[in-house]
Inverse folding.
């Protein structure tokens, strides 16, 4: 009897042990199994190319002279950073970054406040209209603005002439009196595309702020400007951080609009245009990838700074 | 544009690998192809052909090829510059960008150095090789890396109706006459800006200067590769000075500093300029079309580039060819397609189709057009043909694309007065010497 009992207990214990082991295995393994597809996906499409790019950037990787393939350390980076063409392109890119960031923030907020204060029935309609430029691809944006800036038959010259503001066409991208005008005009084309997204993100942020906070502040005697600077702006910090990161990604990585509007013009070419020239004109992938990684690094640093210093958790 | 361009290279390579993995992969061990034959040997295979918009051979014509050979053609039309990038990306990933496709004259140096293309010497019928115009532009070290499918060269197109309105009765043969005629056209109010050529930073700007250098009987580099354009007496120096004078005298629209070639040709089609200084025969069909031109009823004339006073005029060829990448499978079927394209009926379709307009690259087809009076400006083209020579007699150098961009930047800067002719050309010569040293 004892033997039977002990044998049945042992068997139950074994089953329980098995079940526990299975449970523990499932509990421990399941999360990894669930994220495995995502890890594989990111590994294949992000990590591997990134590592491969870093590998290429420290080698001579010239399609014209494949036999010269060898490890050169950071020489490609030194070559890129000491290249006057890249320095000019980097300076232009800093211009795009600063003015796009400012424009996106200011215009985005203004449009968002306008949309937020619209009667509810109109908000949907105008939101749809405002978001349209964001849906237009970069190349199409470039083409569209090239019709506007065309120096012989452009809309802008035509408009200014019909208003008797100018008598002769202005060559927008080559005005010797205004050397930075081309950079500014390309920034404008980029803003036209990016501001809608910023406005939508800001609208979402504004709508999440409880109205009771404003009501309480008004009771305490706050005016509109105080409401904006002491309530709206601080509570919009998560949205501002996201918008600014977007602006940094799109302005530091600007390519399409510059390529279509001014091509390889040194006065307006961006760092990514120069990267393209290294890789696709000179067929020097080592140098091209080094330049691309420098651009990526710049975006990452700026993005980190924004998230570190602007982003704050907001809970109500 | 995504942040990491480098990632794009790799992702694009991977994507293209996946997309093209089936491209022509049906016959790993293709039977030997007898050059020039059209037969059913490769029936059932499909080849991918990639060309710019002016290579868009009508489907009905391609159907005839399929009927004759049993080979199916997947014709992909891409923007010219995009084809270059696709070839580079695919080759970097060690896959074929296409079975048969575009090879521009300006890519020859790089693509040949990289060893990406199959020498076609034994794939093309001897009779076709014999009659191919500009074949030498695609030949490096006796290897023909592409077969020209059009006869491209730089010429001048004038609106004779405007000339007559201004009382000009003779055709300009020298830069001096051209300048005089342009001033007459302007002074008589026929057009505000008589001459047009592109001055934006791009290939068409630099090739315009190269063409003027050739028209003055000069060259850019000597046989040793030393720049020949820095001396004030050199054709290169004088050509740039001439461009600068035309711009500063208000004889060309100031806006051309922002326009590329097609936009300048559109100015001619719109009647805003009377002289397209360095046009190409490809544009004539659009100038004569009521759908794309306002001057289609005018008397338009192709003339040789006016030469520098006292020099024999010349021009250079900028043809486009059909090539077969070494990584491409179905080389036999691809070669058969190229041989078929080079036959007179196809070349004539390629010329007459309003979306193509390619001047035939075979003397036989060209002569046929002249003899039957179907060639617009036939007499003049016949006259220009012997003066067409390669821009680089020893083969397009690998650094040509970079040199071309630097030349365009220099030209714009000089023409706008930001730099003197001497300073600009000295700087360009220095850059060219540096490029030649690398690696």
């Amino acid at each position: 009897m004892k033997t039977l009992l002990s044998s049945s207990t042992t068997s139950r214990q074994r089953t329980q042990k098995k079940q526990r082991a299975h449970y523990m295995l499932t509990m421990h393994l399941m999360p990894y199994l669930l994220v495995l597809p995502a890890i594989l996906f990111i590994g294949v499409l992000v990590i591997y190319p990134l590592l491969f790019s870093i590998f290429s950037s420290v080698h001579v990787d010239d399609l014209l002279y494949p036999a010269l393939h060898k490890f050169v350390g950071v020489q490609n980076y030194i070559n890129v950073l000491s290249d006057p063409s890249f320095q000019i392109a980097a300076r232009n890119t800093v211009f795009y970054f600063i003015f796009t960031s400012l424009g996106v923030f200011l215009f985005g907020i203004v449009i968002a406040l306008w949309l937020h204060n619209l009667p509810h029935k109109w908000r949907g309609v105008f939101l749809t209209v405002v978001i349209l430029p964001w849906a237009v691809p970069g190349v199409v944006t470039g083409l569209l603005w090239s019709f506007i800036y065309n120096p012989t038959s452009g809309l802008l010259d035509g408009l200014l002439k019909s208003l008797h503001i100018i008598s002769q066409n202005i060559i927008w991208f080559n005005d010797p009196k205004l050397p930075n005008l081309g950079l500014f005009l390309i920034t404008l084309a980029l803003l036209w595309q990016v501001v809608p997204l910023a406005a939508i993100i800001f609208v979402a942020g504004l709508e999440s702020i409880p109205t009771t906070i404003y009501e309480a502040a008004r009771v305490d005697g706050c005016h509109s400007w105080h409401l904006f600077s002491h309530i709206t702006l601080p509570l919009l910090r998560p949205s501002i951080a996201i918008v600014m990161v977007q602006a940094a990604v799109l302005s530091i990585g600007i390519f399409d609009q510059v390529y279509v509007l001014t091509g390889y013009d040194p006065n307006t070419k961006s760092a990514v245009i120069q990267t393209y020239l290294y890789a696709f004109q000179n067929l020097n992938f080592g140098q091209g990838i080094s330049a691309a990684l420098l651009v990526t690094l710049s975006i990452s640093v700026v993005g980190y700074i924004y998230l570190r210093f602007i982003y704050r958790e907001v809970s109500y | 544009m995504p942040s990491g361009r480098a990632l794009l290279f790799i992702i694009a390579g991977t994507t293209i690998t996946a997309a093209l993995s089936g491209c022509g992969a049906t016959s790993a061990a293709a039977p030997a192809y007898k050059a020039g034959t059209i037969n059913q040997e490769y029936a059932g295979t499909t080849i991918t052909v990639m060309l710019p918009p002016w290579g868009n051979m009508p489907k009905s014509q391609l159907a005839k090829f399929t009927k004759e050979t049993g080979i199916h053609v997947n014709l992909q039309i891409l923007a010219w510059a995009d084809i270059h990038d696709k070839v580079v990306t695919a080759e970097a990933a060690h896959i074929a960008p296409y079975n048969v496709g575009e090879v521009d004259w300006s890519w020859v140096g790089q693509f040949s150095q990289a060893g990406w293309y199959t020498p076609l010497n034994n794939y093309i019928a001897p009779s076709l090789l014999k009659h191919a115009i500009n074949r030498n532009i695609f030949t490096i070290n006796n290897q023909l890396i592409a077969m020209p499918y059009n006869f491209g060269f730089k010429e001048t197109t004038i609106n004779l109706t405007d000339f007559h309105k201004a009382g000009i009765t003779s055709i300009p043969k020298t830069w001096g006459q051209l300048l005089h005629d342009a001033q007459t056209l302007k002074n008589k109010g026929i057009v505000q800006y008589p001459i047009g050529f592109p001055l934006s930073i791009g290939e068409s700007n630099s090739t315009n200067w190269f063409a003027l250098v050739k028209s003055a009987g000069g060259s850019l580099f000597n046989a040793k590769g030393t720049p020949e354009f820095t001396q004030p007496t050199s054709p290169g120096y004088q050509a740039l000075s001439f461009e600068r004078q035309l711009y500063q005298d208000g004889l060309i629209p100031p806006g051309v500093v922002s326009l590329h070639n097609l936009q300048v040709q559109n100015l001619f089609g719109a009647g805003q300029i009377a002289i397209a200084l360095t046009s190409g025969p490809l544009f004539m069909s659009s100038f004569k079309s009521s759908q794309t031109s306002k001057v289609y009823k005018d008397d338009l004339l192709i003339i040789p580039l006016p030469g520098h006073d006292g020099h024999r005029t010349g021009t250079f060829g900028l043809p486009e060819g059909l090539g077969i990448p070494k990584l491409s499978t179905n080389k036999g079927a691809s070669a058969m397609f190229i041989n078929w394209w080079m036959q007179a009926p196809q070349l004539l379709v390629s010329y007459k189709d309003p979306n193509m307009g390619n001047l035939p690259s075979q003397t036989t087809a060209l002569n046929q057009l002249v003899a039957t009076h179907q060639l617009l400006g036939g007499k003049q083209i016949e006259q220009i043909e012997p003066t067409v020579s390669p821009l680089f007699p020893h083969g397009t150098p690998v650094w040509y694309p970079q040199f071309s961009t630097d030349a365009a930047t220099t030209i714009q800067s000089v023409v706008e007065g930001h730099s003197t002719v001497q300073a600009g050309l000295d700087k360009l010569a220095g850059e060219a010497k540096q490029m030649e040293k690398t690696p």
Summary: Residues 138 and 153 of chain B are 14 Å apart (CA to CA). The longest strand of chain B covers residues 46-51.
